[in-house]
């Protein structure tokens, strides 16, 4: 199976969540609005890539409508693995100042126990390598691997975020009466307030550390 790029994983995760919650396939405009694409041509480009790689297929007789044909969280697991899930690892994420990072294909796979990690097999999950020291007071260190679930964030969650076009790992703050922002867990690093865009790519559910 040909691997997906990071952005393709995001699009597939959105489609899976939308179908579960709404029971219908999202419109091109809804996908365009969610990701901030400049046109529906960008939406179609991602859908064609997902179709070509076998993750979605067209519904006969329905224009611009697809269905999920392969959920990566339901791929074949080793015999006797039980609740062990196999998830992709997508490069590094800055735990410091936000950085511009190119979306890339998966660089590996990691197997974790879903119950212990607190992730739901019905939701899309992925892993990122941590680079930086801004979350050390939350017990997340440079070189750790965080397990991220694509789910709506709550105030206080640690998230993988895209802020003004740059990616970072921070705590999501969303207090009533205030605009959402990102907070570091290290006094040496400032809070980050979006100028134009704050997109939460997923909520950190667990971490893996090599001893």
Please write the CATH class name of the largest domain.
Mainly Beta
- Taken in chain order, the helices and strands follow as HHHEEEEHEEEEEE
Number of helices: 4
Mean pLDDT reading: 82
Major beta sheet, strand line-up: 4-3-5-6-10-7-8-9
Main pleated sheet: 8 strands, mixed
Q: Give the count of structural domains.
A: 2
CATH architectural type of the largest domain? Ribbon
Radius of gyration (CA) equals: 17 Å
Low-confidence segments, given as residue ranges, are 75-82
Query: Count the strands?
Result: 10
Q: Structural class from helices and strands?
A: alpha+beta
Residues in helices, as a percent range = 10-25%
Terminal residue distance: 32 Å
Percentage of residues in strands = 25-35%
Gross morphology is: globular
CATH topology (fold) name of the largest domain: Umud Fragment, subunit A
- In quaternary terms, these chains amount to single chain
CATH superfamily of the largest domain: Umud Fragment, subunit A
């Amino acid at each position: 199976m040909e691997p997906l790029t990071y952005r393709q994983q995001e699009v597939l995760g959105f489609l899976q969540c939308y179908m579960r919650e709404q029971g219908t396939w999202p419109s091109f405009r809804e996908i365009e609005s969610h990701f901030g694409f400049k046109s529906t041509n960008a939406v179609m480009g991602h859908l064609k890539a997902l179709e070509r790689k076998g993750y979605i297929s067209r519904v006969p007789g329905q224009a611009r409508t697809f269905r999920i044909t392969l959920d990566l969280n339901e791929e074949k697991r080793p015999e006797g693995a039980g609740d062990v899930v196999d998830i992709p690892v997508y490069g590094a994420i800055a735990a410091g100042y936000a950085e511009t990072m190119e979306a890339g294909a998966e660089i590996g796979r990691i197997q974790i126990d879903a119950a212990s990690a607190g992730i739901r097999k019905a939701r899309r999950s992925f892993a990122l390598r941590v680079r930086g020291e801004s979350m050390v007071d939350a017990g997340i260190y440079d070189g750790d691997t965080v397990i991220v679930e694509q789910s709506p964030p709550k105030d206080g969650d640690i998230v993988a975020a895209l802020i003004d076009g740059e990616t970072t790992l921070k705590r999501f703050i969303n207090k009533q009466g205030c605009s959402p922002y990102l907070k570091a867990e290290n006094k040496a690093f400032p809070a980050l307030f979006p100028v134009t865009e704050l997109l939460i790519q997923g909520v950190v559910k667990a971490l893996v550390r090599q001893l």
